[in-house]
Amino acid sequence: MYLCNIFLSLFLFSIEFMIVLSSGEDNKMKQDRISLLALKSNIVSDPQNFLRSWNSADEHVCNWSGVKCNNDSTRVVQLDISGHSLHGQIPSSLSNLSALTVLDLSRNFFRGQIPPEISSLTKLKQLSLSENLLEGNIPSELGSLRHLVYIDLGSNRLTGEIPFQLFCNDSSSPSSSLQYIDLSNNSLTGEIPLKNGCQLEELRFLLLWSNKLVGRVPLSLSNSTNLKWMDLESNMLSGELPSEVISKMPQLQFLYLSYNHFLSHDNNTNLNPFFESLANSSNLQELELAGNNLGGELPSVVRHLSGSLVQIHLDQNRIHGSIPLEISNLVNLTLLNFSSNLLIGSIPHELCELRKLERVYLSNNMLTGEIPAGFGDIPRLGLLDLSRNKLSGSIPDSFANLSQLRRLLLYGNQLSGTVPRSLGKCINLEILDLSHNNLSGNIPGEVVSNLRNLKLYLNLSSNQLSGRIPLELSKMDMVLAIDLSSNNLSGKIPPQLGSCIALEHLNLSRNSLASVLPSSIGQLPYLKELDVSLNRLTGEIPPSFQGSSTLKRLNFSFNMFSGNVSNKGGFAKLTIDSFLGNPLLCGSIKGMTACKKKYRYRYVLLPVLLSLFATPVLCFFGYPLIKRSRFRKNLSVFNGEKEEDEEKQNRKDPKHPRISYQQLIEATGGFSSSSLIGSGRFGHVYEGTLRNSTRIAVKVLDPETMVEFSGSFKRECQILKRTRHRNLIRIITICSRPDFKALVLPLMPNGSLERHLYPKDGELSRKLDLIQLVNICSDVAEGVAYLHHHSPVKVVHCDLKPSNILPDDDMTALVTDFGISRLVKGIEETVSADDSVSFSSTDGLLCGSVGYIAPEYGMGKRASIHGDVYSFGVLLLEIVTRRRPTDVMVNEGSSLHEFMKSHYPHKLEGIIEEALLKWRPKGKPESCDKLWHEIVLELIELGLICTQYCPSIRPNMLDVTHEMGRLKEYISTCPSLVLAADDEASSS
């Protein structure tokens, strides 16, 4: 098939070539056209139909997608076809585009080798072939491109050595014009080929990370005095840290040397010369030296490091001695990572003077003494990892001040005392790990109760805690893992733990727990691992555990369980190791004693089964009947209301212009099919233009549903008039007659978000990236939060999905369709004291679109704000995966939430990489990829939290808005990559 595509492309190319020869274009433009058509003929797949305009007759070359010509349209000077998922090979004939200054083929699926003929493009200033599937060596001929300012070959499959000509192309002209070099994320070998005499004086960015480079950092690099960004991490570079090179780089902002084989000076014993060399880099913002096994002590000269330094990574080395007090001079530090070293002594109180710290990693050292109470005075501290040290004393009560604390890791120390009740004030904690210490006393119920937002894990194992498991633990309905093992806990296992419905891992082993094992735990919908071994549990193992479809690992060993155990269902893959030390158990598990008597449970189970089925039957049959009865009553009231021409009402409302029915007919061409831009279950949407040139969208209620919902339509119109928010579509006016009802809205020329996620008919005028998507999601969250919490009339949207989100000219997202089909029931049964009216979806109708509908709606529950949160979560997961929820249902047999949860957290890499391939922002440094990765991961996590099965444990939209706002702020930390050379290339 691949060969057939190639032959077909060559055949078409030959025809086009003949047409070109017969045209009247200038010879050089003819040559450019032929070269572009040759490229098109080598592309075997164009899924976005991006190259549809590339033909030989219909359009001028300068109008082709991705092509830019000079001012008199006589030559092609720029070719940018990046990010369109094109498959094929790069033809050598591109070398005939002799006037080309910019060639960008990045973020596609080009295979094969880089044609050395590209070196004929002598005017080329920018060459970007990154994020493709290119292989083989880098052609040495590229070194002849004397005017090249920007070269990006990163994220391919390139091998071999870096040709020295690329850095030093001519002995007679040792100076290079290169400002940006990115060869990262390949499999390049050999040394960095910067020989003596070669000078990269203009170089600002050198990105060689994730290759197989060896040797030392070349001394000639010290001539690159304008260097701002040097990333050599994840190679096999060796020798002493390049102090002499770094000392000549006063403009340096980002230095990444992690995960190589560097040594400190004086046989890996002295870090002082290197830190002294950094004193000249007054703009240094990030320093990474992790994973080099560097020796020596942290010198006091750290006080001379840049005041702009925000991150320092020295983890996974062999740095010894104490933490220098002078660290307090780095007043702008937000991240400090000294973990996995040989540090001793106490944690200096001066460290707590760094009031901008957000993340502190000091784990896996030999630090002693008490935890400084001053940590509680760092207002933005979100992560504190002091695990695996020799810290003693109690946990400071001052941690109660850390309102932003999300992860507290103190395990593997010698801490004593009780679990402080003050931890209950850290209400944003996601992870709390105090395991493997000497903590004693009870687990405070009030602490557990206040930590209900804990969503990852709680680990109090391997301490000396006593007493009962607090009932308040059941309020942790978002937590994924709980480990209370290896303590002195007693009493019963609370059945209320069955309320922790997100729980996946539960370990209560090695305690003194007694009585029976609650069946409610076996009914947890996501539980994968359970260990209750080495306790005093009695009775039979509840059937709910055997019936669980999620449990993978179970340990009931060394208790006093009794009864029959089957090897069916969830126990089919278990071995005798899961049941050891229970002499009263018998059954069909291999190695277990066979039961002497077979019991019949039919008559015992029948009443239980009937009782279990009773409630669902009532929910699925009784409840809708009750609702339909109430709906008919309300409908009769609506139909009995007197119709009034809304146009008369509009004349009394100066905020809304008067647009007559006749004007709408004129604007839409009589509601012709050519004006139709959308349809739904309740009507159609037409585009039109008024006499004053205002472009409008007219949503017309379907005549078949008009009679049924005309009364609520009028109420809804009044609601929408009163709803005002920058992220909600505004109503221009309404038109209501006995036989015609419509809303008039502004026309959004950018279409819907759905059009951007799943474009048809080729390229969109504006291509979204991750930054814009985060902004759009934040806009949607703000708009829906307004509807839920701030609108004068509280509204439940009920149909959040990409087609109901419209980006305006500034790409600000507007939420639409929070009317007509969704707010048609009317007034809630209760009205609050402030006279605000709440609205919900139609009784008897499906509350939304398939794939976005909250699961509780399928069980007869009324529409609620929790349902909108669920739909928003699906929207986030859909944006990340770019997969429609209905497609996932058909292909995977599960919801989008279930599909993503099955990949979280260890199988997400492919999904995240695919998302970055699609949404990675252009013009941003490749080194921001770590940030993009984190943003996508956080979108996935927020999506999973919003789509939890139980409505009550989902966050509200105010919380979601806060999280999206935080992501917007975080994404802005990536610096823009603006080169003067780019401006030159654009002006050529």
Measured between the Cα atoms of the first and last residue, the distance is 41 Å
Largest sheet: 21 strands, mixed
Number of strands: 48
CATH architecture of the domain at 752-988: Orthogonal Bundle
Describe the global form.
Answer: globular
For the CA atoms, what is the radius of gyration? 33 Å
* Assembly state (oligomeric): single chain
Uncertain ranges = 1-24, 598-655, 819-846, 977-988
CATH superfamily caption of the domain at 752-988: Transferase(Phosphotransferase) domain 1
| CATH class label of the domain at 752-988 | Mainly Alpha
Class by alpha and beta content: alpha/beta
- Write down the CATH topology of the domain at 752-988: Transferase(Phosphotransferase), domain 1
Descriptive overview:
The strands form eight sheets. The protein has a 21-stranded mixed β-sheet, with helices on one face. Helices cover 25% and strands 18% of the residues. The chain is built from 22 helices and 48 strands. The relative contact order is 0.05. With 988 residues, the protein is of the alpha/beta class. Among the domains are: 600-640; 644-747, 2-Layer Sandwich (Phosphorylase Kinase, domain 1); 752-988, Transferase(Phosphotransferase) domain 1 (Transferase(Phosphotransferase), domain 1), CATH 1.10.510.
Short description:
25% of the residues lie in helices and 18% in strands. The chain has 988 residues and is of the alpha/beta class.
Short descriptors:
alpha/beta; Transferase(Phosphotransferase), domain 1; disordered N terminus; disordered C terminus
What topology does this entry show?
Elements lengths: L1 H21 L4 H15 L1 E3 L21 E3 L6 E5 L6 E3 L12 E3 L4 E3 L14 E3 L6 E2 L13 E3 L4 E5 L2 H4 L12 E3 L4 E3 L15 E3 L6 E2 L13 E3 L4 E5 L2 H4 L7 E3 L4 E3 L1 H4 L3 H6 L8 E3 L6 E3 L13 E3 L4 E4 L13 E3 L4 E5 L12 E3 L4 E3 L14 E3 L21 E3 L21 E3 L6 E2 L3 H6 L6 E3 L4 E4 L13 E3 L4 E5 L12 E3 L4 E5 L2 H4 L6 E3 L4 E4 L3 H4 L6 E3 L4 E6 L18 E4 L14 H38 L6 H6 L9 H7 L8 E5 L2 E7 L5 E7 L1 H20 L10 E5 L2 E7 L6 H5 L12 H21 L14 E3 L5 E3 L49 H17 L3 H8 L3 H8 L5 H11 L9 H18 L10 H15 L8 H8 L1
Parallel strand pairs: 3-5, 4-6, 5-7, 7-9, 8-10, 9-11, 10-12, 11-13, 13-15, 14-16, 15-17, 16-18, 17-19, 19-21, 20-22, 21-23, 22-24, 23-25, 24-26, 25-27, 27-28, 28-29, 29-31, 30-32, 31-33, 32-34, 33-35, 34-36, 35-37, 36-38, 37-39, 38-40, 40-41
Antiparallel strand pairs: 1-4, 2-3, 42-43, 43-44, 44-46, 45-46, 47-48
